[in-house]
From TrEMBL:
The keyword Lipid biosynthesis does not apply. Belongs to the 2S seed storage albumins family. This is Bifunctional inhibitor/plant lipid transfer protein/seed storage helical domain-containing protein. Residues 1-23 form the signal peptide. SUPFAM superfamilies: Bifunctional inhibitor/lipid-transfer protein/seed storage 2S albumin. Pfam families: Tryp_alpha_amyl. InterPro entries: Bifun_inhib/LTP/seed_sf, Bifunc_inhib/LTP/seed_store, Napin/2SS/CON. The lineage of its organism: Eukaryota, Viridiplantae, Streptophyta, Embryophyta, Tracheophyta. Residues 55-139 form the Bifunctional inhibitor/plant lipid transfer protein/seed storage helical domain. GO terms for molecular function: nutrient reservoir activity. It comes from Fagus sylvatica (Beechnut). Keywords: Disulfide bond, Signal.
Amino acid sequence: MAKLTILAASLAVFLVIIANTSAYRTTITTVEIDEDDSRQSKCRAQVQMQDLNQCEQFLKRAIQGQGYLTLERDSNRPDQPHLQQCCQQLRQLDDKCQCEGIFEVIREQQGELEGQEMQKMSQAASNLPAMCGLRARRCKIKSSEWF
């Protein structure tokens, strides 16, 4: 009889443990963060905070024929002051955000410029990193995106 009582008590304890265990369920949710998306939004925020007006001025002068679109560094260039200040503005952005900054300058000109002017600006802009001696030597800017 004592064995039966111990068995019944053990069974009751076991049932209570099972009931309590099943009452508490843990749900784990994993969220994958796309590194490119987070970097891109970080870059957008950085670019919005950074004034890139000298890059805009340099690129506008370049398409108007008042600047050189060559990669050579020459202190006698008429566009040299704008180029130097543009480079300084770009260096204030993270290395991985500099092309995004250049792209934003072009995007802002989209309503003002047409066809060949936009194409010329895109070409000049893609070379800006090399002209400035930045880590990214060239930005991939497709002029076809603007037409």
